[in-house]
Amino acid sequence: xxxxxxxxxxxxxxxxxxxxxxxxxxxxxxxxxxxxxxxxxxxxxxxxxxxxxxxxxxxxxxxxxxxxxxxxxxxxxxxxxxxxxxxxxxxxxxxxxxxxxxxxxxxxxxxxxxxxxxxxxxxxxxxxxxxxxxxxxxxxxxxxxxxxxxxxxxxxxxxxxxxxxxxxxxxxxxxxxxxxxxxxxxxx
Length: 188
Prior knowledge:
Mean pLDDT: 89
Number of helices: 4
Order of helices and strands: EEHHHEEEEEEH
Number of strands: 8
CATH class of the largest domain: Mainly Beta
Number of domains: 2
Shape: elongated
């Protein structure tokens, strides 16, 4: 007889569970957000100053005005991301029939997509560790994936905390009635 393991709720999560569904919410806030506020203020202020100086003079070449547009795009994206760290939450609702993940109130377009998944599409749920190397060393994140009806792997979401990814995985398995089976290359 196999004993079932207790599943502690990670500290960062807000969980409301009933026999019919579970709602999991968590804030995106990270301490790096404070640094990003000052960085965005510096970056955006510099661009405003730069463009105000360019428009003050006559005969500014078109190339000189178009070149900094990449920097403007970076400034807008970084400011948007910084604000989202302070205000956004991820909302996950799991029932016996479907899974819904929404990142709100600010949409993140390409980076964090909302997910709507029907139970009939999911054969198995698993986690894969993702290693990223940078100048400050190695960091890890965790992709929560599922195998569809054709045994193709598809991503549900990416988490920086393995405990949160594991908790969500186990809750999907519980509500979808999936028996956990090993998947090649999964994070245990």
